[in-house]
Amino acid sequence: MNHGPGLSHPPYPSGLILAGRRVVIVGGGRVAARRLQAFIDAGAAVTVVSPEVDPAVREAANAGTVTLLEREYAPGDLSAAWYAMASTDRPAVNAAVLEEATAARIFCVRADDAPLGTAWTPAVGHHQETTVAVLANRDPERSRRTRDRLLEALRSPIDG
To answer: According to the UniProt entry, where is the signal peptide (predicted)?
Structure first.
């Protein structure tokens, strides 16, 4: 099984400026709902494509915070996007989203099989003016544990 081009190399960490830029999330379930607020907070122009959506996605659409296309993914849905997330429960659809994204040179997260994507979502936390983002080479649990330890250290008083 091919596990993407970056399997043997560590990711290049980067802070993306998504304000005003189109982000397309294909799939409107629990994963999309969990990631949605971070895109909104970043000022992204978010479009969600999904025939069924989580209540949090519906709420954001009703508030006008995101554009919701209540239908199945179709080729061309990533047009003019800067970033994409394939988060359906159907691997073939996620693969088609990644294929379109790759052809258009759009970074794409595959929520169902991270090694196949061209981008990964780090474990993120905030303390005051600091953002901590941890990528433990495709091990989300290790990323979360490391992030939590770093945030705990930032919140602890410095012994001197």
So the answer is: none
Signed CA dihedral, 63, 130, 113, 21: sign only: positive
Question: pLDDT tens digit string along 95-123?
Answer: 999 999 999 999 999 999 988 999 988 88
The residues of the chain scoring below 70 in pLDDT are: 1-7, 138, 159-160
The phi, psi pair for 8, rounded to 5°, reads -95, 5
Q: 105, exposed or middle or buried, with CB in 10 Å at 0-12, 13-18, 19+?
A: exposed
Pick the CATH number of 22-116 from 3.40.50.720, 3.30.450.20, 3.40.50.1000, 2.30.180.10: 3.40.50.720
